[in-house]
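Why do we bother with a discrete structure alphabet at all? Because it lets us treat a fold like text: something you can write down, compare, and reason about line by line. To make this less abstract, here is a complete entry for DUF4192 domain-containing protein. Read it the way you would read a sentence in a foreign language you are learning: slowly, and without expecting to understand everything at once.
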Amino acid sequence: MDPECTLTVRSSADFIAVTPYLLSFHPDDSIVVIGTVGSRVTFAARHDLLAPDHAGVTSIARLVAAQRLQEAAVLGYGRPEAVIRTLEVLGDELVRHGVPVRDQLRITDGRWWGLGCTSPTCCPPEGKPVPGPDSAVAASAIFQGQVALPNRAALIAQVAPAEGEERERMADLTVDVCTRFMAAGWSGPALEKAGRRLVRRAERRYAAGRALTPEEIAELGVALAHPAVTGHTLDNSRDEPWRIALWTDVTRRVDPFWVPGPACLLAYVAWRAGMGALARVAIDRALVQDPDHRLSRTFDRLLAAGISHDAVANLKPPRARSSRR
């Protein structure tokens, strides 16, 4: 969610209404922790529901406690038994770690209940309907340009690789690009210089509302395998919205072998924009392709720690030789 978006949350129903816009998608079979300092939401994180052995609950609580929140709301989505067990176990663990828990809410089949609330007035046995897109909080989020996709799968699809003829054509183009780069002697400093030029071309194109050709995508993907090219691009990235479109497009269309570079750039600009869920799926895509990609692993640890971009003054990628050349 864009940190410039301002929403007022006053009730348990408001927490439920705002959650899809904090995550950028409607969660299911999930536990969500929303943290506040004063009236400001400063933290939102989603995790799968806990397994019966409660594995991972301590690490989740430590992550939340590290955010120095004044209060937290814990929302569980899915089957009643799994959600209630997760809410109880995680709620107790958060309190043990010094996190005051304001609300524990169960959301199942379009209705919600407050855990432990027995008042028939505020918590009827049949639950209450989940606030819809016409609620005040949701309407305010939509008015401010926020989007909530139907589910996490829809978010993953935004960074999924192109398939079919487009993928085959990109593979052929990438072979041609590699051959041409080698014939031109583009390696080391020469490749870095060429890569910076290709990045500038792409940035100018998307800033003007235009796209890259498939051949230009292939060239950029190969150039971004050079750590210095990716590092220079990170150093000079700002908060322009078109950067999300640029690096999403390159991540989807580039030949999968070369995806870690653009996926890291997408993760970085999404993280800066407060779109943590998009950053997460971008890094997951990079790590599936190359589990040893150093910058991807750095971002993975940063996102896993729940660190806000406000807390990082100057992110520098590893400058060592890339494992994918």
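What the structure line is telling us, in plain words: The CA atoms of residues 207 and 240 lie 8 Å apart. Residues 311-325 have pLDDT under 50 and may be disordered.
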